[in-house]
Amino acid sequence: MADSENKVPQILLAPASPLWYHAMMWAIGGVTLGLLIAFGFVLRDHFQADGMTHVYREARAPLIQYRLEKGAWPAKFDFRVPPADLAAFGFTKVVQPALDKAPVNGSWSFTPDSPAGKGIPAVVFTPSTPDASSQRILLVVDDRLDDGDGAKGLFRVSETEAAFTLKSE
């Protein structure tokens, strides 16, 4: 009975490992969790950028073919209602499926005068809700189609739209 009376309760005993060890384990766990969450956002943006990049690439070929055969760019139009003369170049057949799969909602159009300058044609996307998420996705698209800098180059990203400049060569 003497042994059971002299036992110190477990809660009063000193820990078997030092305090810095436990603090470090919590810190490493927190950093790992934070990195996993950030990686999830980055990965999601890259997956959504695939669909957006596909629309720009699919729209480019029929428009350049139109320019080479007709000698001029088409007038400004919305991709949902393209001009009838673009049908001969397969614009609707190629672009409509890509538009339906685009992950960011918004309007797609062609303009002969892009944000890069007058007389420079571009495929323009205007997000329906311009926010940080659509901005991040469009910057990933810029990295895939151009130089990764949204302020210059063939692909320009602003707060309200993204324009991919076309060349006739």
Describe what you observe in this structure.
With 169 residues, this protein is an alpha+beta fold. It has one domain (17-165). It has four helices and five strands, in the order ααβαββαββ. It is rod-shaped and about 100 Å long. The mean pLDDT is 86.
Describe the secondary structure blueprint for this structure.
Layout: H1 2-6, H2 19-70, E1 77-78, H3 91-100, E2 106-111, E3 122-127, H4 132-145, E4 155-157, E5 162-165
Helix pairs in contact: 2-3, 2-4
- Beta-sheet strand percentage? 5-15%
From the alpha carbons, calculate the radius of gyration and give it in angstroms. Answer: 28 Å
Poorly predicted tracts of residues: none
Rough shape?
rod-shaped
Number of strand elements: 5
Mean pLDDT: 86
What structural class do you assign from the helix and strand content?
A: alpha+beta
Tally the structural domains: 1
The total of helices stands at 4
* Spatial strand order of the main sheet: 1-2-3-5-4
Biggest sheet descriptor: 5 strands, antiparallel
Q: Helicity, in percent?
A: 40-55%
Oligomer: single chain
SSE string, helix = H, strand = E?
HHEHEEHEE
Distance between the termini: 97 Å
Name some characteristics of this structure:
rod-shaped, 4 helices, 169 residues, 12% strand, alpha+beta, 5-stranded antiparallel sheet
Gist?
Helix content is 48%, strand content 12%. The protein is α+β, with helices and mostly antiparallel strands and 169 residues long.
